[in-house]
Design brief:
Layout (H helix, E strand, L loop, with lengths): L4 E5 L3 E8 L2 E13 L5 E9 L7 E8 L4 E12 L2 E10 L3 E7 L4 E4 L15 E6 L17 E6 L5 E6 L6
Parallel strand pairs: 1-10
Antiparallel strand pairs: 2-7, 3-6, 3-8, 3-9, 4-7, 5-6, 8-10, 11-12
Length: 171
């Protein structure tokens, strides 16, 4: 899942991308069974987005905000890494840490011999921190630049000579 971690505010929405890797194996079916904590997250209506997916024929895109499950599956003929299955938009409900993970029903089926090459141990879920407020990233402070200003200093002849005085600001 990408991003694999994020901090968001209660009441906000955020989107994760469900990706799959086949390395050099050509696959013909992908199924992601995903779990999430219903006390912290809900899937919004029409929020399983398949635009741009490597799947050519979806068989299911279902979710339950009661059981905290999402099932997305379909047919394809693809190989490689970082392939998009779908994007899922969540709405946050309460403060806490939401673990979103793949379930044992997930599958990636090879075209050549119909073997499941999905590895639950190697799968990357997501950990999403839900807070009352999110601290914005503050840009670094750059020291204020002072321009040299002329000052009139007597030069002993009755005239004053413009002299530049440089000032430095302490950080």
């Amino acid at each position: 899942m990408s991003p694999s971690s994020k901090t968001v505010k209660v009441g906000d929405t955020f989107t994760i991308s469900v990706l799959f890797d086949t390395a050099s194996e050509t696959v013909n079916m992908v199924k992601a069974s995903i779990t999430f904590p219903t006390s912290l997250l809900s899937v919004e209506t029409d929020s399983i987005i398949t635009t741009g997916s490597a799947i050519t024929d979806f068989k299911e895109t279902i979710y339950s905000n009661v059981t905290g499950t999402i099932d997305i599956s379909g047919n394809t003929s693809t190989s490689g890494t970082g392939k998009l299955l779908a994007n899922i938009k969540f709405k946050t409900k309460a403060v806490g840490t939401a673990n979103v993970s793949f379930d044992t029903d997930s599958q990636i089926i090879k075209s050549s011999d119909s073997k499941n090459i999905f590895s639950l141990a190697d799968s990357i879920g997501g950990v999403y921190t839900i807070a009352t407020t999110v601290t914005p990233v503050t840009p670094p402070v750059t020291p204020e630049k002072k321009q040299a200003t002329p000052s009139q200093i007597p030069d002993g002849t009755g005239f004053t000579t413009p002299t530049y005085i440089l000032g430095f600001a302490a950080l």
